[in-house]
Write a structure and sequence with these properties.
Helix 2 packs parallel to helix 10 and helix 11 packs across helix 12. The chain has a five-stranded parallel beta sheet with strand order 5-2-1-11-23. A five-stranded parallel beta sheet has the order 13-20-14-15-16. By secondary structure, the chain is of the alpha/beta class. It contains twelve helices and 27 strands. It has three domains: about 200 residues, FAD/NAD(P)-binding domain, CATH 3.50.50; about 140 residues, FAD/NAD(P)-binding domain (3-Layer(bba) Sandwich), CATH 3.50.50.60; about 60 residues, no CATH class. The radius of gyration is 23 Å and the shape is globular.
Length: about 450
């Protein structure tokens, strides 16, 4: 039976956004509704491949070669009984039940695929979030962001270029120095700082020794009074101690007032010299969401009920970082965390099947299972929360093991257990034959 014939007889479920949540949802729906021909599942994303966003700080530092951990959407669609469409959503017609995709152009600006529309019966928005620079003067012009694989790889190239430039300098010149400023001491900023220190040691071990590890000056800037302000102090304190031992310069208690080509100006008057500047503070949903005719909040998140249906249209769902879902507490919404997106994807997979069966939808209740922070190979800190464990503090190798297991759980949701075990074996073999740092 052709796809056209199928679409006329069964519901069309369109998932926009192939991040961790959207890809997991499309995979789950494909394995159940798509495989049994009970629905036509289509995933839309602006890229051809997926990489787990919490890994981007490792891509930036070079600890991870993104080409080895990326997932191809076309292949995933074939293996899991859904379709994939390349494109970036730009518009929505709720009356006609179609979304609009921007034209796709090649690297020379030539149009490859014209603007087009895709019809749906049920639409799920899972487009994630971008970094929020809060319109800080000079941030957009002078800072790098870590929202995409391309941005992380660009940072890595710029870092390597400075090392290569120093290595090629004449022997009589003094050792070069690199000043890095990371704005935002949340999980991404903290993990990037530790990973960069690890990268500096490896670069010296590989012979790029004109810049010593101590000559990579890492400045971590946080507007609030401490690192990891969204997490409990008992996690923040050991992380702070480890960062100080690694030589990371902490600047807390004052926001960034302006960013220039030379560095940062803080609101308290302090100036920080930096040739590489990374903005890792705050999030906001993509701007196009505010122009779809759906209810959104001040950071462009689509407002949803606890069933994850949008307040404006019960046929449209939203979840993950791009959605503002109430927690039940006055004025509070579900935090933009990977575990929330995973929980919501699991619920939505059930709810969409219930919807097609004419059953009432279940409501989402956020469950905080704790937080884990990886400080590269130096340490890991976190807490686990649950009915059986209570609130258990973890640190060191055990915390690191739990941190790595989060990625393996993501892989199991996408690949299944047998293939994930094969990937783990492949990673172990590959680690013994490849450099421990990406050197290009």
């Amino acid at each position: 039976m052709s796809n056209a014939a199928i679409s006329e007889s069964i519901p069309r479920i369109l998932v926009v956004g192939g991040g961790a949540g959207g890809l997991e949802l499309a995979t789950r729906l494909g394995r159940s509704l798509g495989k049994s021909k009970k629905a036509l599942i289509t995933l839309v994303d602006a890229n051809m491949t997926h990489i787990w966003k919490p890994l981007l700080h490792e891509v930036a530092a070079g600890s991870l070669d993104s080409s080895g951990d990326e997932l191809n959407y076309v292949a995933q669609a074939k293996w899991n009984h859904f379709q994939f469409q390349l494109g970036a959503m730009s518009g929505l017609d709720r009356d006609q039940r179609v979304i609009r995709l921007d034209a796709i152009k090649d690297e020379h600006g030539e149009e490859l695929i014209p603007q087009r529309e895709i019809a749906y019966d049920y639409l799920v928005l899972a487009v994630g979030s971008n970094t929020n620079d809060f319109n800080t003067q000079g941030a957009a012009e002078h800072c790098l962001f870590l929202d995409t694989r391309e941005q992380a790889e660009r940072f890595h190239r710029m870092l390597l270029n400075q090392y290569m430039k120093a290595q090629a300098s004449s022997e009589g010149q003094i050792s070069e120095k690199i000043n890095v400023a990371i704005i935002g001491a949340g999980a991404t900023g903290v993990e990037l700082a530790a990973e960069l220190h690890h990268a500096a040691r490896l670069l010296q071990a590989y012979g790029l020794n004109r810049i010593r590890p101590e000559d990579l000056h890492i400045n971590l800037v946080e507007a609030s009074g401490r690192v990891l302000p969204a997490l409990p102090e008992r996690i923040s304190e050991p992380v702070t101690d480890t960062l100080k031992k690694l030589g990371v310069h902490l600047h807390t208690g004052s926001p960034v007032k302006a960013v220039t080509a030379e560095g940062l100006l803080l609101a308290n008057g302090e100036q920080i010299a930096a040739s590489l500047k990374v903005w890792a503070a705050g999030i906001r949903a993509p701007g196009f969401l505010a122009n779809l005719g759906l209810e959104t909040n001040r950071i462009n998140q689509v407002v949803v009920h606890t069933t994850l249906q949008t307040t404006a249209d019960e046929r449209i769902f939203a979840f993950g970082d791009c959605a503002a879902c109430p927690t039940g507490e006055e004025g509070k919404t579900v935090p933009p965390r990977a575990q929330a997106a995973h929980q919501q994807a699991t619920l939505l997979a059930r709810n969409i099947k219930r919807l097609l069966e004419g059953k009432p939808l279940q409501e989402y209740v956020y469950r905080d299972y704790g937080s884990l922070i990886s400080l590269s190979t130096f340490s890991a800190v976190g807490n686990l929360m649950g009915n059986l464990t209570g609130n258990v503090m973890l640190e060191g190798k055990l915390a690191r093991w739990f941190y790595v297991s989060l990625y393996r759980m993501h892989q199991m949701a996408l690949y299944g257990v047998p293939r994930t075990l094969m990937l783990m074996l492949s990673d172990r073999v590959g680690s013994s034959t490849a450099p421990r740092l990406k050197l290009h």
